[in-house]
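Sequence design from tokenized structure. All designs in this work follow the same two-part layout: the structure record, then the generated sequence. An example of the structure record is given first.
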């Protein structure tokens, strides 16, 4: 695992995705409740930025066709997407949000 600083925890607005580039991978970072998630910022159904969608009930929605993805697993929870999106390991250290872009979680 090679965690790297992605942003400050204080930069994250609840349920508002923040788009970041980590080693050439676009990642949507989301603070939902007390948890922080990092999911690849591209819908598996269409090449659309998930960071432009809404967050609700620990899912993120693709604004174009309405597919939703679980922030914990990356699995689609609604059509038309049928393929998971990679999610990445996240660790909080003080005010730093650390993400390991080399380690995906779930069934990715």
């Amino acid at each position: 695992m090679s965690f790297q600083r992605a942003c400050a925890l204080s930069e994250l607005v609840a349920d508002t995705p923040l788009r970041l580039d980590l080693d050439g991978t676009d990642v949507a970072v989301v603070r939902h409740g007390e948890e922080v998630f990092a999911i690849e910022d591209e819908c598996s159904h269409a090449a659309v930025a998930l960071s432009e969608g809404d967050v609700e009930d620990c899912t993120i929605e693709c604004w174009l066709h309405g597919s939703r993805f679980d922030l914990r697993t990356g699995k689609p929870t609604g059509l038309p997407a049928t393929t998971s999106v990679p999610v990445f390991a996240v660790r909080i250290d003080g005010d730093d949000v650390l993400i390991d872009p080399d380690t995906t979680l779930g069934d990715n």
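The mean pLDDT is 93. We note this feature because it recurs in several other targets discussed in the main text.
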